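Reposting from the mailing list since nobody answered there.

I have sequence plus structure tokens for a pair of proteins and want to know whether others read the tokens the same way I do. The first protein:
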Amino acid sequence: MSTTATIVNPARSVAGRFGAYGGRYVPETLMAALEELEAAYNAAREDAAFQAELDDLLRNYCGRPTPLYFAKRLTEQCGGAKIYLKREDLLHTGAHKINNALGQGLLARRMGKHRIIAETGAGQHGVATATVCALLGMECVIYMGEEDMRRQELNVYRMRLLGAEVRGVAAGSATLKDAINEAMRDWVTNVRTTYYILGSALGAHPYPTMVRDFHRVISREAKAQMLEREGKLPTAIVACVGGGSNAIGAFYEFLGDKNVQLIGVEAGGRGPKLGEHAARFQKVDGGVPGVLQGTYSYVLQDENGQVATTHSVSAGLDYASVGPEHAMLHDTGRATYTSCTDDAALKATVTLSRTEGILPALESAHAVAEAIRLAPTMAKTDVLMVNLSGRGDKDMGILSRELKIQGV
């Protein structure tokens, strides 16, 4: 499976490719469906009526624009750079995932599809998809690994309450990767009648581009808000990276602003040994380029080229590969990627809760932990923005168990 990546100038990238990464590696039965989806998305993107309906729902149903909040007490505690939080956790359903689910839901309706399938890890994409299906009157089936169902029990109940059927996946590690496999099998079988709402900026073309575009609103808003609040762009933007949807949404409008540092935070899990983390860009025991679930990107693999097991306390970051645009940003050096352990994320959760009264999702807590580490090393004139991608209500079971062990 593993191959050596060829670095290509991003400016020469073609549709569906991010430098050497991306592409469309799927069974023959899905090629026509992906071509149909690409054509429909390209048409919708240029349709003023489609965009107007999406913008109206984002504002009046989802709650955009989300605030850019100055975390005064956290800044004082850390010292150094001013810390701002982009409050995606305040969106309807509690995470950035609703941006993409709503956009793809409207696209599915435009294509005449009435049966929706999706996969979910932390449950936030599943909840967002179930919500949109209820809003639009569509049948909804969500695939979720049984391990993730155990970890995210509250979100499983929320999806079912919204009318979705949640199908547990026992195969493999029973996490996000396995849920995506089952969703793709369903799509292959029912491709004529079913739309697959993929939840992150990964998979076969056009998903990485389409999901990024639906989340681009995060950085578009943040850029204007930061200029209004500080009169300048942030020194650095920090976001957690599982598949990479919230991070690419937070980064995208700043890609051309070379003085703005872009920092992605992967799951360092229990430690750097392969199988104990989900840090695809880690130098030792990290990922190498390969193909997984329709796209060419960095993949955690064992010595035989098989997809390695992963671990993270946050179900949404527990994935063996990463979106192909992040792979390109990593290789070109436009973004840097670091990792945060489970323990550091748990501590960051407590710190943000007790300084600002904001309980972050465990995924987002990885970005908060990096901000807490980084801010004291920066000047007081620097500005650091964290994309707070989700709220922590869903993680109460994990938090109560893990923090009890630590005596919190």
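The second protein, same order (residues first, tokens after):
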Amino acid sequence: MEERIAKRFAKLAEEGRGGLVTFSSAGDPDYDTSLELLMGIGKAGADLIELGMPFSDPMADGPAIQLGSNRALKGGHTMERTLDMVRAFRSEDDETPIILMGYYNPIYIYGVDKFLKDAKEAGVDGLIVVDLPPEEESELCVPALAAGINFIFLTAPTTDDVRLPRVMEKASGFVYYVSITGITGTASASAADIATAYKRLKSHTDLPIAVGFGINTPEQAAAVAEIADAAVVGSALVNVIAASLDHDGKAQAGLVDKALGFVRDLAQGVRKGSPI
């Protein structure tokens, strides 16, 4: 298994800081704009990249990400094009980990074996599939690990100490801690609650812990990166994209620069203000 994720977290540990993980939906608001954003996001300071697989019936996404996925689907985005974007990214960057995040239905429709083969060849490092719990590991988790792709499980404040060992059993790459009980882009957890949760999770695993949901500003990202191994920012970045669309939902000039500028601000936050 190529271990871009492990290498990146080891590098972060050497640097003595938490990382920045960004999320954007592949194909939002259109293929070319989304690809330009993806190609620049690592250079802007993202340490790991989550790329959303657009789906019409999400269960954990808040309004911002739902709208972003809908824009992509309306523009004709497909799983094939998501993998094309990863291939294009890998032609220039062979170090920054890419994790595909989404739901099982599009993968099932694409075909699990074909998806894993194509994703591995494209340069995908990990999967976050929100609606596949550990009890369904035979569907995708076990085949993904066999194919050399990490499978990252979600945990939440409601994941108790009885269930955590079951969640951690097949987890790889890192563990994604959903810091609130709710959908993306809504409430924010307190630093004290995140610190308590991080300590509890680390008692069950040696994997890095990335914390997401409700992180909207460079200051919040910096605070979370002080506690956990990485901070995940999704809805706030998608909102920057949405704010640069015209009345027809088309990208206006400067959209990518604004989005990358926001990523740069987030990255400087987790680097304690140091220039990228």
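Reply #1 (J.P.):
I read it the same way you do. The chain has a mean pLDDT of 92.
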